[in-house]
Amino acid sequence: MVQVTEAVFSQGVLKPVDRLQLQEQQRVRLIIEPVDGGQALDRVAALNRLRAGIASMAFSSSGRLPARDELHDRS
Question: DSSP per residue over 20-63, as a string?
């Protein structure tokens, strides 16, 4: 049976918020997914990497820019 619950990590131990239906010494598989703050920190870090990448790019154009009529075919 699959059970989904939250837990708190404290002093090296995961402590479930809800009571689990497990036998003593039963082995289980855990998938750890932060529920508070983790995604926000990842988002901020990703945004900072994006801004740094944009700042390091060199956008330049040599020669004249095309006129409006040259950009749009009017035939």
Answer: P---TT----------SSHHHHHHHHHHHHHHHHHHH------S
Q: Tell me the two tokens of residue 12.
A: 């090296």
d(CA 17, CA 70): 66
Backbone angles phi, psi at 70, to 5 degrees: -75, -25
Tell me the mean pLDDT per 10 residues along the chain, length 75. Answer: 90 94 94 75 86 88 84 71
**Rounded to whole angstroms, how far apart are CA atoms 38 and 17?**
19
